[in-house]
Amino acid sequence: MELNFRSDNESPAAPEIMQALSQANEGTAWSYAEDDWSRALDRAFSELFEATTTVIPISTGTAANSIALACLTEPWNLVFCHRGAHVFNDEGGAPEFFGHGLRLMPLDGDDGKLRAGTLVDAVNGSEGHGVHSYAAGALTLTQSTEAGTVYRPDEIAALCAAAGDQGLSVHVDGARFGNAIATLGCAPGACTVDAGVRMMSFGASKNGCLAAEALLIFGDGALRERAERLRKRSGHLLSKMRYVSAQLLAYIDNGLWLRLAAGANAQARRFAEAIAQHPQARSEYSVEANEVFVRWTPAGFSALETAGMQFLRWPGDENLARFVFSHATRAEETAALCEALASVAPA
Amino acid sequence: MELNFRSDNESPAAPEIMQALSQANEGTAWSYAEDDWSRALDRAFSELFEATTTVIPISTGTAANSIALACLTEPWNLVFCHRGAHVFNDEGGAPEFFGHGLRLMPLDGDDGKLRAGTLVDAVNGSEGHGVHSYAAGALTLTQSTEAGTVYRPDEIAALCAAAGDQGLSVHVDGARFGNAIATLGCAPGACTVDAGVRMMSFGASKNGCLAAEALLIFGDGALRERAERLRKRSGHLLSKMRYVSAQLLAYIDNGLWLRLAAGANAQARRFAEAIAQHPQARSEYSVEANEVFVRWTPAGFSALETAGMQFLRWPGDENLARFVFSHATRAEETAALCEALASVAPA
Amino acid sequence: MELNFRSDNESPAAPEIMQALSQANEGTAWSYAEDDWSRALDRAFSELFEATTTVIPISTGTAANSIALACLTEPWNLVFCHRGAHVFNDEGGAPEFFGHGLRLMPLDGDDGKLRAGTLVDAVNGSEGHGVHSYAAGALTLTQSTEAGTVYRPDEIAALCAAAGDQGLSVHVDGARFGNAIATLGCAPGACTVDAGVRMMSFGASKNGCLAAEALLIFGDGALRERAERLRKRSGHLLSKMRYVSAQLLAYIDNGLWLRLAAGANAQARRFAEAIAQHPQARSEYSVEANEVFVRWTPAGFSALETAGMQFLRWPGDENLARFVFSHATRAEETAALCEALASVAPA
Amino acid sequence: MELNFRSDNESPAAPEIMQALSQANEGTAWSYAEDDWSRALDRAFSELFEATTTVIPISTGTAANSIALACLTEPWNLVFCHRGAHVFNDEGGAPEFFGHGLRLMPLDGDDGKLRAGTLVDAVNGSEGHGVHSYAAGALTLTQSTEAGTVYRPDEIAALCAAAGDQGLSVHVDGARFGNAIATLGCAPGACTVDAGVRMMSFGASKNGCLAAEALLIFGDGALRERAERLRKRSGHLLSKMRYVSAQLLAYIDNGLWLRLAAGANAQARRFAEAIAQHPQARSEYSVEANEVFVRWTPAGFSALETAGMQFLRWPGDENLARFVFSHATRAEETAALCEALASVAPA
Predict the structure, then answer these.
(1) What ipTM describes this predicted complex?
(2) Burial environment of residue B339 by CB neighbours within 10 A (0 to 12, 13 to 18, 19 or more)
(3) Has residue A127 been placed in a domain?
(4) CA dist B30 to A212, A261, B26, B57, B249, Å?
(5) Which residues cross the membrane (chains A, B, C, D) (predicted)?
(6) What CATH number does the domain containing C334 carry?
(7) Three-state SS for A3?
(8) CA distances from D310 to D1, D6, D13, D269, D337 (A)
């Protein structure tokens, strides 16, 4: 028996999403995002975020992130991000491609989080050399973070305030935004548009959809044309966009996204508790969403693998591994994992 | 009653494709095209084309075309295409974006087709100015063409031979490739790899899929890394690629793609026959696939619209309109269209 | 004896320019265009054009043109130009490189000139397809034209008015602007800023400098930062910019540029008169600047070559050749050319 | 009296270079680097480096560096450099622009130098994530370094060997290469082509020229077309290239470049000796070329400034300042600087 805790990217789609696809598959529909589902997105997300929101449906988070950053910058701009950010480490240079050579500037921060002071220092350190240097242009945050932690609304607000003082726009990579909100229990707008965020990649693929992300522009729609141009130019304007938009509508309908995320988070917490009781293994970060980073011995991890548990040995650190819990993780799977953990005796 | 002959892009997905999606939605699967469905593509398409074929699954034809052209060229290359080509008119500059400023050179050709002599003249006319000019780099053909006609294998071979003599690589935009093969009745390889084509965008979205295209590299896989890098950099490497690959596998399984295309073509032929019998309207081009271009009067088109028929008034020519038939067009819909046509009395 | 009428690009620098270089070579000076010569440019050109003018000194016309077009457009914009324009035919894709994939749209026009009606038709023909098409963005004109003709101020004004109505910005490639003004006899601003031109490449290299062009931004300096960023990013911010700026200051000082251009134009007119008297050869275009295009027989051209005359056989047309006269062309050289022409007896 | 030790970029051109310009200004010459001076470069530099060398003359070091890196990489490549490198800090994103979004990876290293072990660790740390990561592509070194130190031939060879083992090509930014060779006393090829360097920016502007750099390709000329295409596309193919090439020929003729560099180095050493005798100030790095970094107090620096000495307060470190000596620095200027230094009494 193999149990998969490698990534929520490997999870199947939720039944509600599959059903929405089937329902959208009736008859003809306008192509290129002129269909009824796509046209309903602005209203649906504006209600969800309790603010005027422009929605650009798209298939991948990398595309959403890259288009957002290209919307907010010029090619000679610096974009600040956490050193662990997906945009910096895992997108194969997509932000640089869409942004025509913009530069990402990775910053350090405990627990996967940036602090306002770090940002201000970095901006100040990058200035003063005119056209010879890149110019500070934007900040991108990840919520929940790559460490499985969650920014509180006041933390986001402080970062946005600092960014705004420096003339930077703020983007949120919300690949696992549902997991964050399920934990925070706040309104989605409270840690985004209300805090000063300008654009957001609202992820759905990891948490129950097949391939669907909503690139959100908060407030006025001045950036809409730019975003739509970039989506088309990058080949991301699907002819049959209704199938993406139908996923998104079902995903946020009646709280499905939060129920799915809450389920994943619950499994992660359960595993975190098992780790807390283990004599050797420990959680590397506070477990606040659906990812658990475990610090342990290579022998310990190997024993778990032998027991059929699949997870990610962290590159470059043999004593670290990542376990991800998805909307589709069943309680008995987590129980089996916890049991396997407990059964590995300390050296 | 409204009947939609606007575009096959507006058709729903075929039931077999929806079923394949459901079947792929079981349990976890490796992400980022490492899944079993994606891994099965090379073999499946190699069998279909009876030649070694590398498959890059992707969501849109624009992305497939653009990646192909970027694989075959340097930024200082000219890419020759028909003046009516989708890459030139309808992709919002995606080829130029992926190709970092390559230039498309549109060529004239009757019936939507290029001729070898035209290509040779164009290449010769573009040469001889060293670094001051773009250098001829590639040729892209559309099969079936934007005019609803079909290149015969010998026509493709002649173009590839001429291109090869000039040092150009050849790409085929096969957004409606199924419609072409359903008409030609030849092996898919006969008018592609055997004729000298190097890369191909094998379309499936228009003919029964939701969002699935197969970017094909024929022969050795030297361009695979380049194509995969470009797919990732452009945000087209879906985390859950299984859903695209499962569509593609079902699409070519047991001849589904040809049955779907043949159905669309049959409806187009039926309408073409009705036009042939009409005292005024006439087909602009030979009807060889699933598109019918009709030359008629604005009043005639208006009368059809009043009768509930939806189609595309061709931009810039009030006496021309395009009718597209899809895998989902029902015989009774075509019959209604033909009846409406016949009922419009000549002026 | 060989006499060179191939191109004004092959001419040496004028003595006054060499002297200015020597004078600028005293002691140290601030680098990267912070020197006194560079700082004096805005005022000097504002006086010359009788309007607020921002000057970006740069080494080549290709760079000036490309930066200007990139300042005025987004990557998804069309830039309209004459089919014979240098930006389209002779810059190796630099506009597309700087413009990140913008597209040049060549238009026809007799005598190397565009007409407002042609522009309006082209803009209208390119519109209406949303993000699927490029969006009309800018117009670039060449003054004097590639055909050796000159736009009158009212022609420029009509083109700018039409462009403005369509939302396009206008750039002038003034590689041979001095030759145009020497002919027009008008104020430099009359056919540029006063007519509605936004940016201009003010050429100096062909007409007496070594390597110096002034990229001009008329009116408010909103585009200055963009232009300066692009200059730096493309490696065109010389550390010792004083040597470029000193050329430019000397070039426009006390009318030198117009005297040099008038000299070149006079030689061209003299040759044009000789052609007018020849029984066979004729001028292809009206000779209004320093270029003469001659329509004649290959045998005639060969006879001139045998007589030691060097000129450009026009690519693709064996009955056409171009003769260019520069500030350094001596009257006896032109006389020798005219004599050689006269001596070739008709067949 | 103001004495300028801010930068060798602020120095005038050497008399021999001005004379070469004048000599090149005789009569007409082929344009676009087809002239006799430009054609003589390959042989002249092949002799200087005692190896087959292709020369691309160009006006700026930023352009030379950026074209070199774009020649050696794909857009999805990492380029490793020292954290203090000009390409990373001072070129406004030119490498990213020419390289279409390549990424620079800054590495630490004492004394402005990289070590092979650091490179190997960095390459290993960047690998293993397939298309999701950038792929290691090239290494660029600065000789003499940004810290005013000099790599020995064996250090370069060790770095090239490590780079080669990892599949990386090596470029040298030789903006102050003359200063390095004047110190090393070795053949120019010994620390470049013989050590495994593939391309080099051979700087001349800082050390006596007006605006001239030679982009060198060692060994086979496979990269020549690529470099020439990029030079043209970036607007760096001067129409009157003779004036750049003539500078370069004069610069390396009969050892001028080394005499000029040796003069600058001698002044720097003299100032270093003065610092060594000062009770407070000290040299931050070993003084091996023409730059001296001084660690001292802000009050000390202010006192020097009050005495008329101009130099660069290092951004971000109030106790550090840079003094640069050029070919044009006169012994009495250095003496005045040393005297001013000595006269500032310790607190």
Answers:
(1) 0.97
(2) exposed
(3) yes
(4) 18, 21, 12, 15, 17
(5) none
(6) 3.90.1150.10
(7) strand
(8) 10, 6, 20, 18, 10
Domain that holds residue B332: 3-9+258-343
Task: Collect all residues with Cβ–Cβ distance below 8 Å to B240 and sequence separation of at least 6.
Answer: A9, A10, A13, A205, A210, A211, B29, B31
Q: How close A346 comes to chain D (CA, Å)?
A: 30
Q: Chain A residue closest to C76 (CA)?
A: A229
Interchain CB contacts (distance < 8 Å): A and D: 64
Q: Domain check: are C154 and C73 in the same one?
A: yes
Residue at which a domain ends, from D206, D239, D255? D255
**Per-residue model confidence as pLDDT tens for chain C (347 residues):** 799 999 999 999 999 999 999 999 999 999 999 999 999 999 999 999 999 999 999 999 999 999 999 999 999 999 999 999 999 999 999 999 999 999 999 999 999 999 999 999 999 998 768 999 999 999 999 999 999 999 999 999 999 999 999 999 999 999 999 999 999 999 999 999 999 999 999 999 999 999 999 999 999 889 999 999 999 999 999 999 999 999 999 999 999 999 999 999 999 999 999 999 999 999 999 999 999 999 999 999 999 999 999 999 999 899 999 999 999 999 999 999 999 999 986 64
The pTM for the full model equals: 0.97
Contact C89 B129 (CB under 8 A): yes
Q: Is residue A80 part of a domain?
A: yes
Q: Number of folded domains in chain C? A: 2
Same domain, C186 and C129: yes
For position A158, which CATH number holds? 3.40.640.10
Do C165 and C307 fall into the same domain? Answer: no
* Distance in angstroms (rounded) separating the CA atoms of residues D85 and D62: 12
CB-CB under 8 Å, A125 with D316: yes
Q: Which of C9, C69, C90 to mutate to test the interface with D (most CBs of D within 10 A)?
A: C9
Tell me: do A94 and A242 sit in the same domain: yes
Same domain membership, residue B147 and residue B24: yes
- Separation of alpha carbons C334 and C270, rounded Å: 8
Q: Within a domain: residue A347? A: no
Contact D101 A101 (CB under 8 A): yes
Interchain contact, D28 vs C4, CB within 8 Å: yes
Contact call for A228 and C132, based on CB within 8 A: no
From D255, D286, D321, give the residue that closes a domain.
D255
Nearest chain B Cα distance for residue C137, angstroms: 14
HSE, side-chain direction, 13 A CA sphere, residue C237: 25
User: Which chain D residues touch B if contact means CB-CB below 8 Å?
Assistant: 32, 74-76, 100-101, 131-132, 226, 228-229, 231-233, 237
pLDDT in tens, D138-176: 999 999 999 999 999 999 999 999 999 999 999 999 999
Report chain B residues whose CB lies below 8 A from the CB of A211: 59, 211, 238-240, 243-244
Between the alpha carbon of residue C259 and those of residues C179, C182, C262, the distances in Å are 9, 8, 5
Are B205 and B266 in the same domain? no
Q: Least CB-CB distance to C233: which of A76, A228, A232? A: A76
Same domain, D146 and D249: yes
Looking at the fold, whether D186 and D323 belong to one and the same domain comes out as no
Measured between beta carbons, the chain A residues lying within 8 angstroms of D322 are none
Chain A contact probe: residue of D81, D100, D105, D132 with most A CBs at under 10 A: D132
Which of D19, D90, D100, D238 is the best residue to mutate to test the C interface, defined by the most C CB atoms within 10 Å of its own CB?
D238
Whose CA is closest to D138, among D189, D68, D86, D192? Answer: D68
Record the tokens describing residue D241, joined without a space: 């290239």
- With CA atoms as reference, the chain A residue closest to D86 would be A132
Interface contact flag, B229 D76, Cβ < 8 Å: yes
Name beta bridge partners: D4: D310
Whether residue C60 and residue D235 make contact (CB cut-off 8 A), yes or no, is yes
Report the alpha-carbon distance of residue D5 to residue D324 in Å, rounded.
Answer: 5
C236–chain A nearest CA distance, Å = 12
Q: Do B134 and C93 touch (CB under 8 A)?
A: yes
d(CA A12, CA A326): 9
